[in-house]
Design a protein that fits this description.
alpha/beta, Alkaline Phosphatase, subunit A
Length: about 375
């Protein structure tokens, strides 16, 4: 009899312990948003210039910090940081989608595709640039456009919006290749003008809206990023329903914050950060309307060493004024904020490696090994 009571007690303890385990949130969709070159100072700049009115960043339901250093450098480039955020593995600067010893590693998008998720990428740079390429390519050098584009052609990405037409149509003429024709043969709807997005609502779509990068905001780019984000979400939502997918994984990059930071142009940094924030708002609104969606907003590194000092050291004055200053035309090694919103936002917080952020997201959709 004592043995029976002991057995029942043990079962009760085990059941009680299991009951205490937090349930894994059911995340169907991940919208992974990366501000290239965007650190806390860039977001603070937007906050100040917005006269402290709420921005999309203020809607975050959880916040974390991520460390950005690469495998071989305390200051990362976009290739290494993009690879860490995409795959969950550190690598050397300039390397995409593989570890320092050359071992290929798959991104959350590639793994998601194999596991039954639709996928998308929306950027303001050319689509074979470092950050987007980290989600589908495996090359030692970020400048290896031949193999980066070839790797994209092997992928199953549903939606790709950005620039880079010259790399798909004409760049490989010496090899007798026209990737635009090959994309069409694979069943992709290839768009070469932004206004063509309005006529598409489903299927596999590649939009190449500039020969190289899209223009900066200062050069006249309109509301492309927010509109392209909304369109990609519409297409992926319909694809998930029609193809009975589990959900989707989409990466959106505000690519031009970085370039304006390299140029130490404060007006350009503000314009690009503000533009990215509009796309973040689109994603968060989507999450509100589609339970099961997690929005993750971060940067890959900070560019420019932006600081916002007081103009005066006498803090007894009612207003000292501020200045915006840069300490470098390169990248910096500071930690970056991570803003989370939607289903599963509460499951990620604290200080982590950039690789750990990717691993946590992969676990949420069941694709981390």
């Amino acid at each position: 009899m004592k043995r029976i009571f002991l057995l029942l007690a043990l079962v009760s303890v085990v059941c009680h312990a299991d009951a205490k385990k937090p349930k894994q949130p059911k995340v169907n969709n991940i919208i992974y948003m990366i501000g290239d070159g965007m650190g806390l100072a860039q977001i603070s700049l937007l906050q100040i210039e917005n006269k402290y009115q709420p921005t999309a960043f203020d809607r975050a339901q959880s916040i974390a910090l991520q460390k950005t250093y690469s495998a071989n450098n305390r200051v990362t480039d976009s290739a290494a940081s993009g690879t860490a955020l995409a795959t969950g593995y550190k690598t050397n600067n300039s390397t995409l989608g593989q570890t320092p010893d050359g071992t290929p590693v798959e991104s959350i998008i590639a793994k998601g595709e194999k596991a039954g998720y639709a996928s998308g990428i929306v950027v303001t740079c050319y689509v074979n640039h470092a950050t987007p390429a980290a989600f589908y390519a495996h090359v030692k050098s970020r400048g290896d456009n031949d193999n980066i584009v070839a790797d994209f052609m092997k992928s199953d990405i549903d939606v790709l919006f950005g620039g880079g037409k010259k790399y798909f149509d004409g760049y490989f003429k010496k090899q007798n290749k026209n990737y635009v024709d090959e994309l069409k043969a694979k069943g992709y709807n290839v768009l070469l003008e932004q206004d063509q997005m309005a006529g598409v609502s489903e299927g596999n779509v590649v939009g190449l809206f500039a020969d190289g990068d899209l223009p900066t905001k200062r050069q006249g780019r309109q509301e492309y990023l927010a509109e392209a984000t909304a369109k990609a979400l519409e297409i992926l939502t319909n694809n998930v329903k029609q193809q009975k997918k589990k959900g989707f994984v989409m990466m959106v990059e505000g690519s031009k914050i970085d370039g304006e930071g390299h140029g130490n142009n404060i007006e350009g940094v503000l314009a690009e950060t503000r533009d990215f924030e509009k796309a973040v708002a689109v994603a968060m609104d989507y999450a509100d309307a589609h339970p099961g969606t997690l929005v993750v907003v971060t940067g890959d590194h900070e560019t420019g060493g932006l600081s916002i000092p007081s103009n005066k050291t006498d803090f007894t004055l009612p207003e000292s004024g501020i200045s915006y200053g840069f300490s470098t035309t390169g990248h910096t090694g500071i930690m970056l904020p991570v803003y989370l919103y939607g289903t599963g936002a509460e499951s990620i917080s604290g200080i982590m490696e950039n690789t750990e952020l990717s691993q946590a997201l992969q676990r949420l959709i069941g694709v981390w090994e």
